[in-house]
Amino acid sequence: MYISCGNAANINSMADSRSVFLNRLAALNNANSDSLFSSKANAISLETPDLKIMQDNTLCGVATPCVVSGKVLGDTFGSNQNKKEVIDYTVQAGDTLQSIADSYKISVNTLLWANSLSASSTIKVGQSLAILPVDGVLHVVKSGDTISTIAQKYKAVSGDIVSYNGLLNQDDIYIGDILIVPGGTMPKSSSSVANQIPLASNYFIFPTEGIVTQGPHYYNAIDVANKCGTPIYAAASGVVQRAVYNNAWNLGMGNYVTILHPNGTVTYYGHFSTVFVKPGDKVNTGDRIGLMGQTGNATGCHIHFEVIGAANPLAKYPVGSKISYK
To answer: Which of 140, 234, 240, 310 could form a disulfide with 194 if both were Cys (CB 3.0 to 4.6 A apart)?
Structure first.
């Protein structure tokens, strides 16, 4: 089996790949066969193909004639649950907190803590829930926080927080960062969710133009889609905290920027194709900070726009709404 793609940097699914199935016996005996691997007796063999990844964008499989099962491919490619990202789950009919937790192999407490729920809370169809990739808690960094104090608060290990979140060291945190604290437990009468401060309705401008494609989801975010290369602007003046431009997964956000504003709020912009700013830059409202893309966990060109510490101004626009400066 041979699978290849033209540009690995832009591949987010198998939809953009080209696949060719190599089957020596099929070629000899049945040119129209759609079997991946088959035996001379058309029986399933116990052997499985030897799959190898080359140059990060090509999967080759070499094996004696046999049938490859879905489990083999699943084990080879892995699943989204193996990636360190928070998943937005929409509650379906018949779901319970326990069934959802079991499905994602996390504890019910982890599910409750991540969504500011209690054991007596009820869920309804269509509700959006944040699913952590590991047992633990979410923490929104505030002024004065350190990795040590966060670890102490949740009875976790400092080194685990640093490594799990891909931090450079224990000093690599900023106000508004959302950290996964693996193995952490929520103290009683405490919450990991940042308090929201009231803002004037015109404090934030639209970060871009386009169509709202996803309503409020993790973390206080709205998605706006447009064509790749659409300009992204600073929603308010502030200082750039993070400007990550490495075309990596980055917990699903791809290339992203975070800006700390004078009132203590933070805005987060994900899935850039190009980033124009760097950490420490001072930006004014409306400054162009990058271009829309589909890096990270993005199936199309859009911006993931979060507001930490205040209401998201785009939350009032239903999915399908067009937002424009005109």
So the answer is: 140
